[in-house]
């Protein structure tokens, strides 16, 4: 891919597919299990029984247990053309699932510091999860740091046999690379990523993957009445944009429209946020990054589904020109909103995006946003809240759980919709009570969804950005959630 106009991207380990063991490589990754009677080594079929037994003996001697995600490094033995062997723990063999494989493959990839080439034989248990885990686990972001210390592994080869294995590899690679693209976008600091520069990056992405792109600049937004995006962007010298991407295959069976929140920095505006951790608000465009990456995956997978992506980009700043509490704004569809808190800005830009996307009457409409701190209070840091049409929300949550992106369906209580009525406008952007903050944001958005369109709203405030140490295939900072959920949903159609 052509380089994007970003200050930095995460480490790009190349993950490739091969049917046969290469001649020479640095590290051989082998799967081990924790059996009732101790360590079990799964025969990869690549080596003679003698060699497998010797590997098992050596691993047992150094105390490998086969516990999930345990990594044990031993010197290579006669007959293995590597420098060393890495045993990757997969836990109880009877309980092995895709998520265990993904996580273990990721931990293994991360452990391969200062290694050039590695070959993994874990694919015998599932090519796609091993590929995804390797690509996702090798990712780390050091941005513009001059000295980064150790270098990550440069190539991981996934061994597999036959056409289906190759297909599974491709699907895993495309999905995981899409996640890494979303991570790159979210990790970019707001010094470098602001509405105009973000629109440039999106245009570059579109050109690379043959997607149609349309950028509405500030003038066009004024002319067409995008009052939500304009109000939120008003306090910044870096003016807002609304960008649409389209993947339009010839014989599309369905049309899925995604809308993403793209606040490139959220200070809260005049309703200023407290200082602690405000830096994390560089990630307030995580929803937009996820839906852009999803469109890229759809195109690369050549799915026969039309995909439209609408992202509303603005920087929420306090300033002499900023919008104020008490202001009344008019959205793209004519609905008016009384702004009671300028920090509840995501719903204002999404409202315009949802109204625009609804005009085409897509079969499915999905919005994605780092929308509320209340999501984190309700569900924690790792579980997305999904609202909207109850069946559809439940369907997406189930897909999320299956691909390892935890998600839970949440209701849209009618009393909260009632509480969003304003005495001076059609709506107000917050309710008088703090309770149910994630849900009232969802209720607000619902008002902008066209009639009889199947809709879901995904709140990723917590899951999009990992503020603690890396775990499984989740690095520090941007996680790329819920790209794989969206890709899996498109594939399911
Ligand atoms: N971007 C925030 C939500 C957020 C909080 C994302 C923490 C990630 C981590 C959003 O714009 C916001 O500030 N929401 C307010 C809404 C409130 C004023 C009703 C919130 O959640 O506090
Ligand atoms: Zn906010
Ligand atoms: Zn925000």
Automatic annotation (TrEMBL):
Binds 2 manganese ions per subunit. Mn(2+) 2 binds at residues 261, 266, 284, 345. The active site is at residues 273, 347. GO terms for biological process: proteolysis. Residues 341-348 form the Cytosol aminopeptidase domain. It is found in: Cytoplasm. It comes from the Bacteria. Keywords: Aminopeptidase, Cytoplasm, Hydrolase, Manganese, Metal-binding, Protease. HAMAP family: Cytosol_peptidase_M17 (MF_00181). Belongs to the peptidase M17 family. Presumably involved in the processing and regular turnover of intracellular proteins. Catalyzes the removal of unsubstituted N-terminal amino acids from various peptides. This is Probable cytosol aminopeptidase. The gene is pepA.
